[in-house]
């Protein structure tokens, strides 16, 4: 079973601050990594699918990078807004499986 | 937009009851998944299915079974509910066989076993 670690566990930032969090995973047999945003009372929503070492993806103020050789991915939020408050989950998978193993998430609270 | 619908948002069942959690997706996805989410733990995979009548165990299948008789429907069955199965259950689907397409989740079923 993949050991997926996300840090920090929780984070409070002021509106307008930029922030980033980390997802660490074993680098062997890497296949793909997903990032999800999970808002309270809603279902998790996919942000990014990342597959290649050095991948960078961007969606509005949110971006992500991937390093498969060292086994980590960063998620960045520029100019945080209250609506960014959510739990951010990463889920890597190993080749040949359907199993996306979820980290415990980073809970972000953006204070107005 | 893909819609994944779970039949109940909240369920309360008694220990020993047989419990069915139903999930339906409307986008002809091949893969369907059942996860449970508990405080301090990530989403943990119970079972998944990559085709009708095909299923594979996830990381925590004990005490659960599944059924996929039609492509759009994936049912999770608790044969004899126990209090340690009190949890939030999430169903998800994804597009195709052996691809890396993202998971689309339902809204979850919060099950309490008393």
What does this entry show, briefly?
With 112 residues, chain A is mainly beta.
What report would you give on this structure?
The complex is a heterodimer of chains A (112) and B (114). Chain A is built from no helices and 10 strands. With 112 residues, chain A is mostly beta strands. With 114 residues, chain B is mainly β. Chain B is built from no helices and 11 strands.
Q: Helical stretch count of chain A?
A: 0
User: Strand pairing plus helix content of chain A: what structural class?
Assistant: mainly beta
Query: Strand order, biggest sheet of chain A?
Result: 1-3-8-7-6
- Helical fraction of chain B: under 10%
Strand content of chain A: over 45%
Identify the quaternary structure here.
Answer: heterodimer
Please report the distance between the alpha carbons of the first and last residues of chain B.
37 Å
Q: How many extended strands of chain A?
A: 10
Major interchain interface with per-chain residue totals: A-B, 25 and 26 residues
Provide the succession of SSEs of chain B.
EEEEEEEEEEE
pLDDT averaged over residues of chain B: 93
**Overall average pLDDT of chain A:** 93
Number of helices of chain B: 0
Structural class of chain B: mainly beta
Number of distinct beta strands of chain B: 11
Instruction: Report the radius of gyration of chain B as a whole number of Å.
Output: 13 Å
Order of helices and strands of chain A: EEEEEEEEEE
Amino- and carboxy-terminal Cα gap of chain A: 39 Å
Ordered list of secondary-structure elements with their pairings:
The complex is a heterodimer of chains A (112) and B (114).
Chain A: E1 5-7, E2 10-14, E3 19-24, E4 30-38, E5 45-50, E6 56-59, E7 62-67, E8 72-77, E9 86-94, E10 106-111
Parallel strand pairs in A: 2-10
Antiparallel strand pairs in A: 1-3, 3-8, 4-5, 4-9, 6-7, 7-8, 9-10
Chain B: E1 4-6, E2 10-13, E3 19-25, E4 31-37, E5 44-51, E6 54-57, E7 64-70, E8 73-78, E9 87-94, E10 104-105, E11 109-113
Parallel strand pairs in B: 2-11
Antiparallel strand pairs in B: 1-3, 3-8, 4-5, 4-9, 5-6, 7-8, 9-10, 9-11
């Amino acid at each position: 079973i993949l050991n997926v670690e996300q840090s920090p566990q929780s984070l409070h930032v002021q509106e307008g601050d930029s922030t980033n969090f980390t997802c660490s995973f074993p680098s062997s047999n890497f296949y793909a990594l997903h990032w999800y945003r999970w808002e309270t009372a809603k279902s998790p929503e996919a942000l990014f699918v990342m597959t290649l070492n050095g991948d960078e993806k961007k969606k509005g103020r949110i971006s992500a990078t991937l390093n498969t050789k060292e086994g980590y991915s960063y998620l960045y939020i520029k100019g945080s807004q209250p609506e960014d408050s959510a739990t951010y989950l990463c889920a890597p998978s190993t080749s040949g499986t359907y199993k996306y193993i979820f980290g415990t998430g980073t809970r972000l609270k953006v204070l107005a | 937009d893909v819609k994944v619908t779970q039949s109940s948002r909240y369920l309360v069942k008694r220990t020993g009851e047989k419990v069915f959690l139903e999930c339906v997706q409307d986008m002809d996805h091949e893969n369907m998944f059942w996860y449970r989410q508990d405080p301090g733990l990530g989403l943990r995979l119970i079972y998944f299915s990559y085709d009708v009548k095909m299923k594979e165990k996830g990381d925590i299948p004990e005490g659960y079974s599944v059924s996929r008789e039609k492509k759009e429907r994936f049912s999770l069955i608790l044969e004899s509910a126990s209090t340690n199965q009190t949890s939030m259950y999430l169903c998800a689907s994804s597009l195709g066989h052996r691809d890396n397409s993202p998971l689309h989740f339902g809204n979850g079923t919060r099950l309490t076993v008393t």
